[in-house]
Amino acid sequence: MEQDVETNTPAKKRLSWHQVNEGIAFALGNLGHSAFYGALSTYFIVFVTSGMFSGLSTQVANRLIGLITGLVVVIRLAEVVVDPILGNIVDNTETRWGKFKPWQLIGSIVSSILLVIIFTGIFGLAKVNWLLFAIVFVILFVTLDIFYSFADVSYWGMVPAISEDSHARGIFTALGSFTGSIGWNGLTMIVVPITTYFTYLATGKHTQGPQGWLAFAIIVAIVAVLSAVSVALGTKEKDNAIRQAAKQKTSIKDVFVGIIKNDQILWISLAYLLYSLAYVVTNGVLFYLFKFVIGKPGEFWIAGAVATIVGFVTAPLYPILNKFIPRKILYTVGQICMILSYIIFITARTNMALLIVGLILFNFTFAQLVVVLSLTDSIEYGQLKNGNRNEAVVLAVRPMLDKITGAFSNGIVGAIALVAGMTGSATAADMTAHDIHTFEVLAFYTPLVCAILSLLVFLFKVKITEKKHAEIVDELQAKLATDTLPHSATAQATKATTQAQTMVLAPVSGRSLALQDVVTEDGHGLPGTGFAIQPSDGTLYAPFDGTIRFTFSTKHTLGIVSTTGLETIIHVGLGTVNLRGAGFTTYYQDGQIVHAGDRLMTFDRNLIRQRGYDDVVVTFFTQPRQITATDKVAPTTVTHGDPVLNVTFQAPQS
Q: Suppose 592 and one of 245, 424, 500, 574 were both cysteines; which one would form an S-S bond, judging by CB atoms 3.0 to 4.6 Å apart?
C-alpha cells in the first residue's frame, strides 16, 4: 500500500486505466438498460393509448386500452414478489463467464425481442381476436418483464463482483447512475422526432403512428443489446473470497416484516412512496400535456433536455451542499420546488417560458439521495431499538418502492388518457374544457397532494438526521461494548455452551492501550472488554480468521466473528461517525469469510485529525459476560498481526 511519507497515511486512491475502461463499459450498460426501462414504463402506455389499436373502433379500442393498462399494473406488481426468486437464480448461476454476464446478455436480448413484438401490436392480433390477443399479451409481457428483471438484477449485482474496493464501487455506481439518467431522459428528447419521422416515411403524415412507435422500439432494443454487450465484453467478474461468501436472500415477507419492526424505515418509505408516485405519474403524462393540452408535441424534447441538465447539476451538487446543509432541509427545498412546479403547471401551462421554469423546479430534487442515505442510517437505529440490523431489507426497500410506483403509474397514466379522451388519433383541437380539467385533476392536483404529504411525513415523522444518527451510533456502540443491547426478536433460544479460545491479533500497527486508558470527551475511559491501538498507519487488517457480520453505514465500524465464535467490534477513531464515511475505504463485503491478516480497510488518519477527532482503533468484544479470561494489555509497540490478547469464552455448541 502506497503511503504518504509525512503523515504515514494511505495516499489518495486513483483508478487504474483498466478500472477506468471497466467503469466506462459498466456505465454504458445502464445507458441502454435505463432507456429500455423508460420505453417500457412510460412510452409503452403512450403507444397503447395512441397507436396500438389504430384501425379498431373507438369503443373496442378503449376497452382494450383499459384491459391492457390494468394487466400491466397487475403484472408489474407481481414482479415485486418475483424479483427475489430471480435474484436467487442469478446468484446460483455458475458458468465460465461468471454468474452475472450471461444473464445480462440473455435478459437483454430476450426482453428486447419481446419489446419489439409487443410494439408491433402483436402483429395486429387484436383485429383478429381480442381475447386471444389479451392471452398472448399477458404471456409475452410477463416473459418480457422476467427477462428484463434478470438483466436488472445481474447488472447492479455486478458492482461488488467487479471490485472489492468500496471507493471503486462507488465510482462504478455513480457512473451507472449518470448514464442511466442520460438513457432515461434522452428518450424524452428523441421519442417525438423518431416516431414522427418514421411514421412520415411510411405514411407521408407528420404524426406519431404505429410505424413510428415500432421504429422507436427497434432503436431502443438495439441500444439495450449493445449496452449489455459492452458490459459483457468490458468487465471482468473477480473470483475472490467475496464471491464465495454465502449471502442471505431477502424475501418480500422479510422486507415488510423489517419495515414494520423499524418505524423509521416505515416513515422514510412512506415519504419516498408519496414523492415517487407524484414524480413518476407526472413524468408519464408530460407527453400528453405537450400533445393534447399545449398542442406542441414537437417541443416535448424540452422536458427531456431540462431533466438531463438539472440532473447533471443536482447530482454533484448534493454532496457539496450536504457538508453545510442537513439532509432534512435539502429534502424540504426539493419538495417545495416540486410543489411550486405543480402550481405553475396548473396556472401557466400554456406559457412556454414559465413551463420551462416549472420543469426546472420539478426536477430540482434531492429526494432519492436523501432517502437512500436516511434508509441506510436507519440500519443502526433498528439495531439499537430491537437488535435487528435489517441490512438486506434496507437494500431492497427503495427498488421495491420504485417498482410499486412504476406499476401504479402505468395504470394511472392509462386511466388519464381514457377519461380525458387522449387516445387514438385525438389531437389538442379535440380536447374540451372538461377533458383538460379532468387531465389537470389527475395529472397535477393529485400528485400535488402527494408531494405535500411527502414533505409533511418527512418533516414530522422522520427523526434520523445526521446529528441524531451520530448519537444513535454512540449509544449503540456503548451498548454493544457492555452487552446491553435488546435481543433480536428472531434470536435463537439459548443453547448449551462450550469453552473456546481465540487469539486476537493487532488489526493495525501502532501502540497498544487498555480500553480504560483511552480517554473520551467526558474524561472517562472506554467501557467494555478489549483493547485499543494508537495507529502508526492507516491500514486495518483482520485480527483472526472469521466472518464479517456487518459494517456501520458510516464505514468507521465493523462487526466480525471468529471461527470459534468470538463476536468482536472494530471501531476506527472517536467521533469519526461525523465524517459520514469520508476517508474510509473498505475491501470486503458483509458476509465475507476473511483470514487473519487480510486487509479490511484503509482510513485517512490525516483527515481524521484535521477534523479534530482521535484516530485510535478500538477493538472490543460484544459479549463480555461470556468471556472467562483474557490477557492483560500493556502499553507497547505492535505491528499488525502481532498477538495482543488470548481470549477464553463460552461459545454456543454447534
A: 245
Say whether 571 is catalytic: yes
pTM exceeding the 0.90 threshold for the entire prediction: no
Cα(297)–Cα(345) distance, rounded to whole angstroms? 16
| d(C-alpha 301, C-alpha 313), whole Å | 19
Q: What are phi and psi of 205, to 5 degrees?
A: -110, 135
Query: Closest Cα to residue 539, out of 585, 500, 576, 501?
Result: 585
pLDDT tens digits, residue range 222-270? 999 999 999 989 888 765 433 333 344 556 666 667 677 888 989 999 9
The one-letter amino acid code at 173 reads T
Q: Give the largest CA-CA distance in the chain.
A: 89
Residue with cell 491501538: 533
**CA pair distance 478, 528, nearest whole angstrom:** 8
Determine the Cα–Cα distance for residues 416 and 213; give it in Å rounded to an integer: 20
CA 32-38-42 angle, 5° bins: 160
Active-site pick, 33, 469, 571, 640: 571
Long-range contacts of the stretch 447-451 (C-beta < 8 A, 24+): 447/277, 447/278, 447/279, 447/281, 447/282, 447/342, 448/278, 448/339, 448/342, 448/343, 448/346, 450/274, 450/275, 450/277, 450/278, 451/274, 451/275, 451/278, 451/335, 451/338, 451/339, 451/342
Judged on CB neighbours under 10 Å (0-12, 13-18, 19+), 241 is middle
First and final C-alpha spacing in the chain = 39
Q: Which residues of 257-283 are buried (b: 16+ CB within 10 A; e: fewer)?
A: bbbebbbbbbbbbbbbbbbbbbbbbbb
CA nearest to 333, candidates 323, 346, 321, 316? 321
Cα 290 to chain centroid distance, Å, stands at 31
Give the pLDDT band of residue 623 (cuts 50, 70, 90).
Answer: confident
- How far is residue 318's CA from residue 516's CA, in Å, rounded to a whole number? 40
SS3 category, 515: helix
Element (H, E) at 348: none
Cα–Cα distance, 98 to 439 (Å, whole number): 49
Q: What is the DSSP letter of 142?
A: H
CA neighbours closer than 13 Å in the CB half-sphere of residue 233: 7
C-alpha 620: how far from chain center = 32
Per 3-state DSSP, what percentage of the chain is helix, strand, and coil (rounded to 5)? 60, 10, 25
Give Cβ neighbours of residue 444 (< 8 Å, ≥ 6 apart). 282, 342, 345, 346
| pLDDT per position as a tens digit, 55-99 | 788 888 888 888 888 888 888 888 777 777 777 788 778 888 888
Strand partners, 602: 539, 585
- Which residue is listed with cell 399494473? 73
